[in-house]
From TrEMBL:
GO terms for biological process: protein ubiquitination; regulation of dendrite morphogenesis; ubiquitin-dependent protein catabolic process. This is HECT-type E3 ubiquitin transferase. It catalyses: S-ubiquitinyl-[E2 ubiquitin-conjugating enzyme]-L-cysteine + [acceptor protein]-L-lysine = [E2 ubiquitin-conjugating enzyme]-L-cysteine + N(6)-ubiquitinyl-[acceptor protein]-L-lysine. It is an enzyme of class 2 (transferase). Pfam families: HECT, HECW1_helix. Residues 218-429 form the HECT domain. GO terms for molecular function: ubiquitin protein ligase activity. Pathway: Protein modification; protein ubiquitination. Signal peptide: none annotated. Residues 82-113 form the WW domain. It comes from Angiostrongylus cantonensis.
Length: 429
């Protein structure tokens, strides 16, 4: 089997950390000269905020590496035609994980960032250089297209004026919640070891290997032990790189609608949810438990997964109540009808009762939302209960057992009690 690991480069090239690169005095100029990076910067308020925090507050990039947009933005500056710095290694693809053997760490950020420019002495007769603001066709760039550059300069040189032109979308409150969550995980000993759980996977048989290995480990070991991941016929020290790659690759298969456990929430959406036909998959409950364990492990080991879930799915994980507005994301028409009922007086002439029509074995049947629901009319006094029951029915129909299996898998890693404790702490920040 051909290894997918790019070997160490013998060429000695110095590595400059991404934070040092972003804090460079000429970074604004570099950003403006890189069209792809400038477009990514202007398209993402979150990337703007992260760059601002690193440049203004001197923060490191490690805490932001979970954000794929930020990682992709920084990597747009990397020169992939150059060899890796000494003692660096690149492993895998989509994403590529970079391994620094000297510092014994891994990162998703390419270390081949532009080095600091060498200062050249200018002769007394030479006029001071002036930057020519030209596009790739040689045309002068107008002021409107340079708003990002101007904003960053104001932040650096006129800090009192900066808040008036730059209002970060992501608040510090969110950062505090995130830091509180991971600090609590660390203090509680999740994933710290000293024991290790060793997994060896084949890239060509990833799902079956995960099914046969991850489900056999006891929950206590999953919570406390460190992970040691390796792939067949591939050498490597797991400084976190293989672990990150595993969760990324595994999530692309396990949660993909092709395998029948999950489905797209709508034809034009890429968010996924548990499929109402997942019961047709052999050993569906065990597969759902595996999905839960994978989510739990990715959470405590801070590994990226390549999946976007619906808001109702996240609330299901946290066992939080689902609202009409949440439902509108996955079923806009159904959500709008419930919202209309909430905002308008009930029309008793419609004869609405606590009953819903449901398809079962090809036939439409009536299902009571409450005992004797067929005899209970929906009125202004009880319509909120009716709406809550309808939301519960719509989000749980056909997937109750699968949802419970997935939750069981998640809570075998970080326990439900722990998650609720952390949430309570977060809500009081």
């Amino acid at each position: 089997m051909t290894r997918r690991t790019i070997g160490l480069s013998p060429v000695t090239t110095k590595s400059y950390g991404p934070a040092v690169f972003l804090q460079r005095a000429d970074f604004v100029s570099l950003l403006h000269e890189n069209e792809a990076a400038l477009a990514a910067y202007n398209a993402s308020p979150l990337v703007k905020h992260i760059v601002h925090r690193i440049r203004k507050c001197g923060e490191t990039t490690e805490k932001y590496e979970h954000n794929r947009d930020f990682v992709a933005f920084v990597n747009l500056f990397a020169d992939e035609t150059q060899p890796l710095p000494a003692n660096w290694q690149a492993s895998g693809k989509n994403p590529t994980v970079f391994i620094d053997h000297t510092a014994r760490r891994t990162t998703l950020i390419d270390p081949r960032l532009p080095p600091p420019a060498v200062e050249r002495k200018r002769g007394h007769s030479a006029p001071p250089s002036r930057r020519q603001n030209l596009d790739k066709n040689g045309n002068l760039i107008d002021l409107a297209s340079r708003t990002a550059e101007i904003a960053m300069l104001v932040e650096e040189r006129l800090p009192d004026l900066a808040p008036k032109i730059h209002d970060p979308v992501v608040s510090t409150e969110f950062e505090e919640k995130l830091n509180h969550f991971y600090t609590s995980l660390y203090r509680s000993g999740y994933g710290k070891g000293p024991q290790k759980v060793k997994f060896q996977f084949s890239r060509s048989n990833l799902l079956q290997d995960a099914f046969s290995q991850i489900l056999t480990v006891d929950s206590q070991s999953l919570r406390r032990a460190k992970l040691a991941i390796s792939f067949d016929d591939e050498e490597g020290l797991d400084y976190g790189g293989p672990s990150r790659e595993l969760f990324y690759l595994l999530s692309r298969e396990l949660f993909h609608p092709y395998y029948g456990l999950f489905e797209y929430s709508a034809p034009d959406q890429y968010t996924v949810q548990i499929s109402k036909y997942s019961n047709l998959v052999q050993h569906d409950l065990q597969w759902m438990e595996l999905a839960g364990r994978v989510l739990g492990l990715a959470l405590i080991h801070r590994c990226l997964i390549d999946t976007f879930f619906t808001r109702t799915f996240y609330k299901m994980l946290l066992e939080l109540p689902i609202t009409v507005h949440d439902l509108q994301e996955v079923d806009p028409e159904f959500g709008r009808s419930l919202l209309w009922l909430h905002e308008n007086p009930t029309d008793l002439s419609l004869g609405m009762t606590f009953v819903v029509n449901e398809e079962e074995n090809g036939q439409v049947i009536e299902k009571e939302l409450l005992p004797n629901g067929a005899e209970l009319n929906v009125t202004d006094d009880n319509k909120e209960e009716f709406i809550s029951l309808m939301i519960k029915w719509r989000t749980e129909r056909g997937i109750q057992r699968q949802s419970q299996a997935l939750l069981r898998g998640v809570h075998q890693v970080p326990t439900l009690i722990f998650i609720l404790d952390i949430l309570l702490g977060i809500f009081h920040l």
